[in-house]
Every structure is written in C-alpha cells, then in structure tokens.
C-alpha cells in the first residue's frame, strides 16, 4: 500500500468514525433528551464530534478521498447503538462512550505512529481530536460508565464492534 493510499484509508476511517459518533450521540439524545447532567455532557461531546466530522469531510473532499460505502449502515447502526444504550440508562450511554473512545484513542495512536512526520496537517488534526476523544472517555468514566449493567460485556461488545467498523471502513 502506497503512502497516499494509506493516508486515504486513514481519512476514510476517521471520517466514518466521526460520522458514526454523531449518529450514536443523536440516538442517545433522542432517548434521553437534554435534561440530565449525562444528557448535557453527551450534547457537549456530540458538538465536538460534529466539528470533527466537518473537518474530516473537508479533508476528504480536498484530497479526493472516497468516503466509505458503508456510511448508510453506520448511520442506522450508530443511531441504534446510541438509542439502545440510552434506553438501558444513562450509565450505559456513558459506557458506550467510554468503550468507543478507548478504541479511538488506541486507533488514533496507531495512526500517529504510522504517519510520523509524513503528513503534518493530518497528524495535527488527529492529535487534537485524540485529546478530545480522551476527554470524552474520561467524562464518561467520571459519570459512572463502569457502573452500567453488565459493563464488562457491554464495553467488550462495543469495543469489538468499533474495531470491526474500523477494519471494514478502511477498505469498503
């Protein structure tokens, strides 16, 4: 895989991930509204994810990178995951965030290692967004994510789904 195709795959995955995050938060907010402290935290995180998506949308357009063909699936699956975890309860919604952001932290770290100094603009964007994703994870943990029903199972399943989505979006 050439350097250009690796960077294109990175952008495709990252844009898909930010799109999926906005859909997860939309599902959670559809169920939770915006009254509770957890819902207000989710709304703040959703706002940051929407900004991330706008930036990655711009970058893939400027660089001529094809978005994932799986976006319609991520649209439905993200909203469903968000709504389902919110229906379980606020702590489960936070467990979803903690699980996803744990994987995204790992994923962005791998991308930064792979990029090195090859693409300063992309690397800086990933570094900035990674810091915000870590904040989201820490916010979710502080809000009781680990107290969600069946937390180890819920977290493990969501993290596995996240890794699968990353792998699929890289190529499709």
Walk me through this protein's architecture.
- This protein has about 170 residues and is mainly alpha-helical.
- The chain has a single domain, classed as Up-down Bundle (Ferritin), CATH 1.20.1260.
- The chain contains six helices and no strands.
- α1 runs antiparallel to α4.
- It is globular.
- It starts with a helix and ends with a helix.
Gist?
This protein has 172 residues and is an all-alpha fold. It has six helices and no strands. The model has no long low-confidence stretch (mean pLDDT 92).
Summarize the SSE layout with pairings.
Elements: H1 3-32, H2 37-62, H3 71-88, H4 90-115, H5 120-142, H6 151-171
Helix pairs in contact: 1-2, 1-3, 1-4, 1-6, 2-5, 3-4, 4-5, 4-6
Keywords:
Ferritin; 0% strand; globular
Instruction: Return the CATH topology.
Output: Ferritin
**Shape annotation:** globular
- Tally of DSSP β-strands: 0
Structural class: mainly alpha
CATH class: Mainly Alpha
Tell me the number of structural domains.
1
Biggest sheet features: none
Give the distance, in angstroms, between the N- and C-terminal Cα atoms. 15 Å
Which CATH architecture is right?
Answer: Up-down Bundle
Task: Provide mean pLDDT, rounded.
Answer: 92
Q: What proportion of the residues form beta strands (DSSP E)?
A: under 5%
Low-confidence stretches: none
The number of helical runs is 6
Cα gyration radius (Å): 15 Å
Helix content: over 70%
Order of helices and strands: HHHHHH
